[in-house]
Amino acid sequence: MPALNILSRIQEYDLHFTPTEKVIAQFFLENKQAGNFTAKEMSRKLHVSEAALSRFAQKMGYHGYREFLYLYLAEFEKSTRPEVSHVKEQAFPDNFAKTALPPSDEVFSVYGNILSQTAASVDTKQLKRIGNLLCKAGQVFVYGLGSSGLAAMEFELRMLKLGIDIKAITDYHQMVLNETRLKKSSLVIGITLSAQTTEIRDALLFATSKKAKTLCITAGHEKDWFAQIDEVLSVSTIKGLEYGNMVSPMLPLLLNLDLIYAFCLSTKKKRDGAEKNEEEHVLWERLKHYHGK
Fold it and tell me: Does an H or E element contain 72, and which?
């Protein structure tokens, strides 16, 4: 099982939890005090069954609640253990008090959590399949609204440099009009962090009905319609990120789009040979030395 700290893992799986499991998750995320966390006591305290505690732990990849609790207590003890200070006590004023973390530290913490979660959950086989889909597609259309639309436009620019025939569409009316262009050789990518954007869902399902290949990039928990999509790439996120209060919701999307780009680049280098790669190198050099006015 990937080495993620307990609280990060709970946050990663938040969207996958049932309402009962969310109650359990909330307790452990908010708890600051030592206590009796045995299955029997937690069942009584949270008004959940011991079986629910076991399912909660197993959903995150642990063998059971006992393993989860063992690791949780080890982390809890480490986090509450007082640090040894090499600064003399009298160096602080009498009214010294511990202050909250500055906003910069909070931002870095969120970045670190998302990076570690993504690194731990990378599916290289799936990324290779997605890279092959992109390289083989006749045309690629990337759908996204709001922040997901901005990520779609960034991805379009990246993939154009590889010679991919790609178009980002960030307006639902245009998505509907674009349906007339879909073919069996097309690849439609839908980006929706929550998996609750009905416009993206409908556009992907219509593409499926036209026999086009489909890819959904999302952090949402499993939906019934996912079964009709060729590839569903799950991205790691944290609770509330879609609101963009501290960190842009584009972060996990761009991180995973970079992974797709890297695998697509590797696939093209192997497939196209030295001559085509040299053409792309020349393009990169032109862009590097270009200075727009």
Answer: helix 65-80
Residue 76, C-beta contacts closer than 8 angstroms, at least 6 positions apart: 31, 34
Q: Tokens 């079986």 map to which residue? A: 51
Which residues, including other chains, have CB under 8 Å from residue 4's CB and lie 6 or more apart?
12, 116, 117, 120
pLDDT tens digit sequence for 27-62: 998 888 888 899 999 999 999 999 999 999 888 888
What would the pLDDT profile of 184-214 be if each residue is shown by its tens digit?
A: 999 999 999 888 889 999 999 999 999 999 9
Residues written for the chain: 293
Architecture (CATH level 2) of domain 6-82 = Orthogonal Bundle (1.10)
Q: Say which CATH architecture domain 123-288 belongs to.
A: 3-Layer(aba) Sandwich (3.40)
In terms of Cα–Cα distance, which of 87, 17, 85, 97 is closest to 52?
17
Mean pLDDT, the chain, rounded, equals 82
Q: Where are the domains of the chain?
A: 6-82, 123-288
